[in-house]
Amino acid sequence: MVLQYIFKGGDMRRTALFVLSILVVAAFPFVSSAEIREGSFELSPFIGYSMPGHSNDDNGAAGLRVGYNITKNWGVEGAYEYIDSTAELFHTDVVYHFTPEKKFNPFFFGGIGAAHVRKDSNTELTGNIGLGVKYSFTDTVAFRADIREVFGDFKTLMTTAGVTFSFGGKTPKPAPEVSQAKPEPKPEPRPEPKPEPKPEPKPEPKPVQVAPVAEPVRIILEDVHFDFDKATLTTVALDILKKNVRTMKDNPGVKVQIEGHTCAHGTEAHNMALSERRAQAVREYLVKEGIAANRLSTIAYGETRLAVPEIPTAKNKESKEAKTNRRVHFEIIIK
Description:
The chain has helices spanning 2-6, 12-27, 235-250, 268-288, 320-325; strands at 40-52, 59-69, 74-83, 87-97, 104-117, 122-136, 141-152, 156-168, 224-225, 254-261, 296-302, 327-334. By secondary structure, the protein is of the alpha+beta class. The two termini are 143 Å apart.
């Protein structure tokens, strides 16, 4: 066997140290941070010493462990150990890691197994318990050393060292990066305020030219008067009407309502008809003189609107009051 060849003859301590050095040096290319991963498998070749029966005679040992980490802290492993010229051990152990998230991770283990003793070719039931430490170079490579007590029909104290290779398992979550607060930028110096420019002088307001308001044109149409119980235009009445015609022609936008009136003598019905004839006589004259008929309208009031009060008697038919009331009045209407 290969292991028998390694330990055949010579100084077993020197051979063991040589093999251990090879294992440790082989792990250095993988150095970085690491931790035990839940659900990962481990393969651990090792070498060491065995002191059967706690004697001073030590024998070289070598072997292989295969483990599974159920959680970060708890795991199980099976091991095969070859003790030079003495025995072969097979055992299954439960492992507890104290600091699985650290590079330096002490652990405790214990389990049961069997020892095949070469001297008498017997296979004996054994138990074992021990302490160890792992130092992780990376998340897949670690250095492992332990010491264990094997008890039962076969007894020995063993110290071993080797390299543990880890496979699979849950990848640990990276620690959250703590963002450093950026220093607040220094405020830029504020520029000195520029003096406000002097306001330009306001231009003097131009004088507002107000258009002259035209004075209202005063239109006067003089009344005409009639003889007692007559609707005939007198000479005086015709002269007045000629003036009124000129005024109306000068003001073509003016319309006129011609009002017929009488004095208080006579009946109301008679006087109403008489006042209508007087208004019509004036209208016909104005139309004849060139005033448009649509500018003229007539209305009869009879004796209902006396210009001055009077007492109708047989003696005062020609009184001043009666003559004043026998008239046609012009009511001006502006468009």
